[in-house]
Automatic annotation (TrEMBL):
Positions of the Beta-ketoacyl-[acyl-carrier-protein] synthase III C-terminal domain: 259-358
Organism: Parapedobacter deserti
Name of the protein in its database record: 3-oxoacyl-ACP synthase III family protein
Occurrences of domain Beta-ketoacyl-[acyl-carrier-protein] synthase III N-terminal (ranges): 133-204
Keywords: Acyltransferase, Transferase
Pfam families: ACP_syn_III (PF08545), ACP_syn_III_C (PF08541)
Superkingdom in the source lineage: Bacteria
Lineage: Bacteria, Pseudomonadati, Bacteroidota, Sphingobacteriia, Sphingobacteriales
CDD domains per record: KAS_III (cd00830)
Length: 362
């Protein structure tokens, strides 16, 4: 049998910020609705309901001296050390993010130079053939970077690609919006490498969708819900109910299309790594996925979750989750050689994607 070229993850890294923010840290916040009215429930009631729905008990924020490109660099350095390769041999550096570098004392987003260029500079890479660019694709951006890397590798245009997801959502969260409790900061990275194999390994298939006709502004930037809050920038806003309802229908179907392309069934999957957006939503998505295959329930522990202690760090949730499992840092959740993993994500746009991945043996 003739061998084919596949994109295989050969190293991973992550950066988990040091500032731990508990749910009780929001007890003194003043929460408003989107009409500018103070919420009638007590903060204790709001926080209790929030924890029950999202599963979030704590999240991580970056310290004031760091921005997104800094933590992207930390994750990249970790991934390079994990892979044991020379950074000069990278063909591409893709950095998925949505808000650029935002300083603690100036909440304006910086996009020039590109965060990928800043990371390349931090890594002291002098090779001009290492192409560095940014990828804004909502929370699904890191996974879309994986898809693009697969195209480069399969086409023979790249041998090694570094894909990073980094975000500091704490810098664009409205302190007067209860949704702000969802958001967190973090960074994760993987290095994909071209491998020849006579059996399918690495990235097996992928699917991506953009539902912009009706859902383009489900996530958007807008003013604070507090009409008296003095500020000169916009905050991330979300129509959570609408996103939840659509994700519940579209994400399982997107995953199924990906599995169909790979010639797999849901029973062939060992782990489902889904964007850590909302525990209740992710559990419902998994249930709906198995129902598409006429299964009433899913295997225990097939879907590891970090949202309870890391929150929703957008593009960083998936690579961070993968890195923790890859390095044996996730209790009772390991990635076995030969296992088939499905990645899935959804975010602003509304964009959704899925990747089927087989971990090489040995």
């Amino acid at each position: 049998m003739d061998s084919s070229t596949y994109a295989v993850i050969v190293g991973s890294g992550s950066y988990i910020p040091t500032r731990k923010i508990l749910n009780d840290d929001f007890l003194e916040h003043a929460f408003y609705d989107n009409d500018g009215n103070r919420l009638k429930k007590t903060n204790a009631e709001i926080i209790q309901q929030f924890g029950r729905i999202t599963g979030i008990q704590e999240r991580r924020y970056v310290t004031d001296d760091l921005v997104a490109s800094d933590i992207a660099g930390f994750a990249a350095e970790d991934a390079l050390a994990s892979a044991g390769i020379d950074a000069e041999t990278l063909d591409y550096i893709i950095v998925a993010h949505n808000f650029g570098d935002i300083k603690a004392d100036n909440r304006r987003s910086e996009f020039v130079p590109a965060l990928a260029s800043r990371v390349k500079h931090r890594l002291t890479i002098t090779n001009p053939a290492t192409v560095a660019y940014d990828l804004p694709f909502g929370c699904a951006g890191w996974l879309q970077g994986l898809i693009q890397a697969d195209y480069y590798i399969r086409a023979g245009n790249a041998k090694r690609v570094l894909v990073i997801g980094a975000e500091t959502l704490s810098r664009i969260s409205d302190p007067h919006d209860r949704d702000s409790m969802i958001y967190a900061d973090g960074a994760g990275a993987v290095i994909l490498e071209a491998r020849e194999s006579d059996t399918p390994i690495g990235i097996l298939a992928h699917t991506a969708k953009s539902y912009a006709a009706d859902l383009a502004y489900v996530l958007r930037m807008d003013k604070s819900y507090n009409p008296h809050y003095a500020h000169d920038h916009l905050f991330l806003k979300m129509n959570g109910r609408k996103l939840y309802e659509y994700a519940l229908k579209a994400v399982p179907q997107t995953i199924k299309e990906c599995l169909d392309q790979a010639g797999l069934s849901v029973t062939d999957i060992n782990k489902v790594l889904i964007h850590q957006a909302n525990e209740k939503m992710d559990v419902a998505i998994l249930k709906s996925l198995f129902e598409l295959y006429d299964h009433d329930s899913s295997p225990v522990d097939i879907m590891p979750m970090t949202i309870s202690w890391l929150g929703n760090s957008s593009v960083a949730t998936l690579p961070t989750l993968y890195d923790l499992m890859y390095k044996g840092k996730f209790v009772n959740q390991v990635l076995q050689h030969g296992s088939v993993v499905v990645f899935a994500s959804m975010g602003a746009g509304v964009n959704m994607n899925a990747v089927a991945y087989k971990i090489p043996k040995g």
